[in-house]
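Final report, closing paragraph on structural work. Over the funding period we assembled a curated collection of sequence-structure pairs, and we close with a single example.
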Amino acid sequence: MSNKMVNSFKQILEEKDQDFLYSEFTINEEKQLIKIFSDSLKYLELSLKNCYEISRINILFSDKINKYSEYIYKSKENEKNDFILDYSINLSKNTQITYELIVNNKKNYHKLQDNYEVLITTFDIISQTLYNKYLEECIKQLSLKDQITGLYNRKYLELYLDNILSLSKREGKKIAFLKIGIDKFKAVIDEFDYKIGDKVLTTLANLLKRTVRASDLVVRVEAEEFLVVLLNVGDEENAKMLAKKIINLFSKEGVIVNQATKQTLYKTICIGISLFPEDAYSIEEILRTSDNALYEARNMGRNKCFLYSENKMHTIDLF
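Its predicted structure, as stored:
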């Protein structure tokens, strides 16, 4: 287990990280940390097998603050092994990486024990590399998430659409975009405060996540506006039905503004719908057409939805 091996591992890890530059930057939900590290850690396993004749290695990553505890690497199961030696590295007060080395005889077990200091030093160096990558992913996660609602933000939307639009073009599939705006949202801030405004935003965000499919995407794009990306939508009627369902459900969602009196606030939303590829071919066009459709829906009153139509856009007074 030389410095050359450790440096090679670092290089492999850094190169592997580049492959995920434009993939989903989630950690807990999508196990992105495991995806990034799994192939790189195969090299570590191979080195340990060659040097110490281990049968398997399992690596457990724990972060108490983020409530993340997962095996970021597990060797393929083989014959039963009775000898396990653990090496735990404390990276911070709440973060720890544990290396479980499994061997199938006492001779190799004693070999591990005799080289404990070498192994613990090696694992300490590698753990710092893993931890640094984990922190980088956490920072990316924060930069792509809205801190109030926990939804993805516009920056992530653009990365996401950059990939999904080209794929949908090749496969000939439709995508519907639902631009959602809360009616008279500024009045909530003026009448109450920003905390109540945040409650309204999170209430809508949670409803949207519960209502759409797991394969769809919900994004907070502006102050009181959200965008739902419906993948592989059958036709415009399906999009309109979902829009009306969301409008109806949210109209019944109450936000308590006074715990003592149980005073409850009910808000309404409007939704503008645009379709890919019928109404837009690029990210800019998608944002423009869905925004125009929302504007028209709001012109019609509250609790309204409007399907984008180029022929009707002359009715919108944009300026």
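The longest strand covers residues 95-103. The CA atoms of residues 34 and 306 lie 42 Å apart. We thank the funder for supporting this effort.
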